[in-house]
Amino acid sequence: MIVALIITAVLLSIISGFSKAICDLSEEGKLKFKNYFFWWKDYAWKNKWKLKDNGVPVLKNGQYIPKFWQSDNLFVIFTDAWHLFGFIMRVTFGASFLIAGYLAGAVSLYYLFGALVNYIVFIGVFHIFHTYKILKK
User: Fold this and answer.
1) If residue 59 lies in a helix (H) or strand (E), which one and from where to where?
2) How far apart are CA 105 and CA 120, in angstroms?
3) Fewer CB atoms < 10 Å away: N or C end of the chain?
């Protein structure tokens, strides 16, 4: 059992590191995959927003219109590699961290609940600062 958990934690860490590399290479436009509109962040934003015939995003009341329901929030992970692999990176890194804590004897139900609350706070704070004009020009 312990060996399986150690192997799982290591594999999850490897997947997390691989996913981070995909995110960074996507942002830099250096991935070698041919479908730029999924793999390269500079092109993939077009999968998130409704576009006019000339490729310009549609605006309504000063806001971009999502291409499909929740393509700008809940289902953004399906619009491009950067969001998908960012999600995979966070989940696998968190899971490997929880397994390592369990192996160290530090995990209880309170620890697991705290890890869940911590992730919810992280996502909530990101959403607030990314969505509202606190940090934007």
Assistant:
1) strand 59-60
2) 24
3) C
